[in-house]
Amino acid sequence: MSYIIDGKAISKQIKDELKDEVSQLNCEGISICLAVVQVGNDPASSVYVRNKKRACEYIGIKSAAYELEESTTEEELVKLISELNSSDEIDGILVQLPLPKHIREDLIIQSIAPEKDVDGFHPVSVGNLCIGRSGFISCTPAGIIQLLKRSEIEITGKECVIIGRSNIVGKPMSILLLRENGTVTVTHSQTVDLKKVTSRADILIVAIGKPKFITADYVKDGAVVIDVGIHRDENNHLCGDVDFEDVEKKVSAITPVPGGVGPMTIAMLMENCVEAARKKSHR
Fold first, then answer.
1. Pick from 53, 47, 18: which is nearest to 33 by CA?
2. Which structural domain, as residue segments, surrounds residue 75?
3. Rounded to whole angstroms, how far apart are CA atoms 2 and 154?
4. Which of 10, 70, 197, 278 stands 20 to 30 A from 78 (CA)?
5. ∠ CA(154), CA(160), CA(166), 5° rounding?
6. In what helix (H) or strand (E) does residue 14 lie, and over which residues does it extend?
7. What is the pairing mode between strands 159-163 and 224-227?
8. What is the CATH number of the domain that holds 102?
9. Active site residues
10. Are both 100 and 160 inside the same structural domain?
């Protein structure tokens, strides 16, 4: 029987720790505010934004919502971000992705001041991660590391395989696993004989973006499987990139969808917001 890694429980543990710290910071006269910017009313984005606001409320962080029309221009969005960059009241800025097609995501990400980049997407944040300097880390990979550590899953010396090379998950994930002394392979759409590569993984992290793509024949006996994907199946039920029912019986530990990686992403966003306030108080 595999161990189901409970992301909800672990994320609550982290948020409770942050709640205590935020309370202490408030006693010292330090309040924390996250600016949440959403362009358009994509239903999935609205759910994510609502969950982020609830997390802020839970741990005692203020949230300032900026809900903009789909027709908002690139220039108008950059102007708002510039104002938020300059505001002493705002500690972190989150622009919900994806953005409408007429707005360049790279430009918007680079418009956010690095010291307020709580998503960890700015080139400065990415550069700091690459060279081992302190800075904001992309929330999903940071959350996965916490899932592994708090589940007492050893990373040092393990064969770690990542499926997916995105800037948001795959690439930063590889660096974080290297930091933890894992031996890392990153696979992608051009990888030859994917099953052969994934079948040697002690820790398999799946961010391929295809529902139930990974079945038991991709997975080594006793592996740990982390499923980053989230989709709706043919019955409109949430599922991941991993065929959970097929894979669960073969592995030692696995994350469910929902309730695995998703809650951790939000918990680490909260961690980054608190870290932003810590840094500001020391400047």
1. 53
2. 30-114
3. 16
4. 278
5. 125
6. helix 7-27
7. unpaired
8. 3.40.50.10860
9. 52, 96, 119
10. no
Question: What is the rounded distance in angstroms from the CA atom of residue 24 to the CA atom of residue 17?
Answer: 11
- Looking at the structure, do residues 249 and 189 belong to the same domain, yes or no? yes
Element containing residue 276 per DSSP (H, E): helix 261-282
Q: Tokens 């529902």 appear where?
A: 211
Examine the domain organization and report whether 170 and 249 are in the same domain. yes
**CB distance 67 to 38 below 8 Å:** yes
Which are the contacts of 73, defined by CB distance < 8 A and separation ≥ 6? 102, 103
Q: With respect to residue 9, please indicate whether it lies within any of the assigned structural domains.
A: no
Same domain for 174 and 66, yes or no, is no
Q: Are strands 62-68 and 231-232 parallel, antiparallel or unpaired?
A: unpaired
Give the number of residues written for the chain: 283
* Encoded tokens for 240: 């991941």
Gap between the Cα atoms of 263 and 278, Å rounded: 23
Indicate the residue type of 136.
F
The residues facing 159 across adjacent strands are 183
Q: For 127-170, write each residue's pLDDT tens digit.
A: 999 999 999 999 999 999 999 999 999 999 999 999 999 999 99
Residues 145 and 258 in one domain: yes
Report the alpha-carbon distance of residue 186 to residue 100 in Å, rounded: 30
Task: Decide: pTM greater than 0.90.
Answer: yes
Q: Give the CB-side neighbour count of residue 80, counting CA atoms within 13 A.
A: 20
Which single residue is written with the structure tokens 């994806």?
Answer: 98
Q: Residue 212, by phi and psi: left (phi above 0), alpha (psi -120 to 50) or beta?
A: left
Beta carbons within 8 Å of 91's beta carbon, 6+ residues apart? 32, 33, 34, 116, 118, 273, 276, 277, 280
54-78 residue pLDDT tens: 999 999 999 999 999 999 999 999 9
